[in-house]
Amino acid sequence: MSLIQLKNVSKNFLEGVPSGISGVSLNIEQGEIVTIIGESGCGKTTLLKLIYGYLTPQEGKVLFNGEKIKGPTEKLIPGHDEMKMVTQEVTLNLYAKVFDNIASQLSNTDLQAKSELTLQTMEFLRIDHLAEKKIVELSGGEQQRVAIARAVITEPKVLLLDEPFSQIDSILKRQLRDDIERLSKFLKITVIMVSHDPTDGLALSDQLIIVRNGKIVRQGNPRELYLHPQKAYVANLLGKANLLKNLSFLPRQGVEFAVYPHQIGLSYTNGMANAVIKSTHFCGAYQEVELVVESKIILVHDPEFIPFVTGEKVYFDILNYEELES
Known about the structure:
The chain is α+β, with helices and mostly antiparallel strands. The chain folds into two domains: 230 residues, P-loop containing nucleotide triphosphate hydrolases (Rossmann fold, 3-Layer(aba) Sandwich), CATH 3.40.50; 84 residues, CATH 2.40.50.140. The strands form four sheets. It has a six-stranded mixed β-sheet, with helices on both faces. Strand 7, helix 5 and strand 8 form a beta-alpha-beta unit. The longest helix has 18 residues. The relative contact order is 0.13.
């Protein structure tokens, strides 16, 4: 049996209008890292709150180890006892020290054990050097790590994270990704997180759940979903894919194809078709090139940094086409 099961779950906030989630079914296994991604307002956070027990479904069932998760009308303090949730809102005691914020989650029956476990947890999340600082003195990323330490110190079975990377820079994001992965593997915690950035899910997850307008449009292994998106929405969300249809160089007419920007090669001398350079932008590891092909703008990532000039003619080759469902 899966650790968490959702069976045809619906929760909408406006009658007759998609404003939450509808008909969602999924299984989450113990120890998995699962990322829920989608555009703003698609129902990601609603789904997370239903799993935690903050919301009660209007239809369907949410189960933990085969037992129904109680909603806020059935429980004095909402939230499942075996889960912890870290939201975007700061719920820490801003004027207390980091150590005290984390230690406050433990009982005082054994003060030495309480202190040792608090220090171990802080060291695990690389915030032990912040122990004597007040929360108000920390950056957003540091506060996020303290909130996660506070959540996991009681060793919950499930950790739910709502946009955990939204307030931190790219360097800290990589560190926090590593820490979340270590937490999951070392403590055997199932991690379910919501993110608007697909790179978070691609880099970290065992399972990716893609939501659109309150419904799951794809779910599964991140690599499989990226390489075989099946749907235009998925291809665009995961890799800003070019969505191409009814162009002369395509292998089939009347069919839509997804081509990621890095799957197109450019040349001055030869290729399958020609195009006109619309613009170029330096992006670090590559330059972003916009082409005009048969009145269609196509985005290309060029790692060779060919010195293209706006308005000149070039040739291109498409290295891979992925046919999409109609």
